[in-house]
Amino acid sequence: MDTAEKDKHYWDKHAKNYDRSMSLLGRPIPRMVELAGEATHGLGRVLEVAAGTGLVTPALAAGAGEVVATDYSAAMVAALEGRVQRAGVTNVLCEQADIYALRFEEGAFDAVVAANVLHLVPDLAGALAALRRVVKPGGKVVVPTFSHDETALSWMVSRVLAVTGFPGHRRFTAKSLRQAVEAAGLRVTRTETLSGLIPIAYVEGTFAGDDE
């Protein structure tokens, strides 16, 4: 089994426990959700990649015209669909999709949200290029990400998670995340470090040159 299949198997297996794990790691989640909702409020069409069980999805749907929420794990998509249905949200389409092989046309979305996934992707440059392709010129890109190396405590927690088989591919600080996305061409317009057992670095921007 290659790395991609091993990672997908991990999330298929752990989808049922994902929300429970957030009771330990999820202190920064409410603020992240709030910021993502603010960023996409009033926009027409929003793509959410790595939506997981839908922790962010209802907030996006509350302010956007349409949300396409995707995840590459079938089990996660099933949980996502359940959350959307329970919330009574009618402007969300849920589907299984790989971040590296999005079916959408270039510039199809007013915003793309990729929450808590950049530390998990084997090919960071490829993932960011995929997001850039599907967002319209000047569109918003929202990439909040767990920063495993932000504090001494988060460093230790991250190493414990690694022993359990957690499929992380890199450990960010808020500074290194910003540097990585800027190197890929993202013009950062908003940042905030959200404290927690593992902090989240909230990063929002547009791709440089796309609105010029």
Describe the structure.
The chain is α/β, with parallel strands linked by helices. Helix content is 42%, strand content 23%. It has helices at 3-25, 29-40, 57-63, 74-87, 124-134, 152-163, 174-183; strands at 45-49, 66-71, 92-96, 109-114, 135-142, 145-146, 186-194, 200-207. Helix 1 packs parallel to helix 4 and helix 2 (29-40) runs parallel beside helix 3 (57-63). The protein is globular and about 40 Å long. It starts with a helix and ends in a 5-residue tail after the last strand.
Describe the protein's topology.
Blueprint: H1 3-25, H2 29-40, E1 45-49, H3 57-63, E2 66-71, H4 74-87, E3 92-96, E4 109-114, H5 124-134, E5 135-142, E6 145-146, H6 152-163, H7 174-183, E7 186-194, E8 200-207
Parallel strand pairs: 1-2, 1-4, 2-3, 4-5
Antiparallel strand pairs: 5-8, 6-8, 7-8
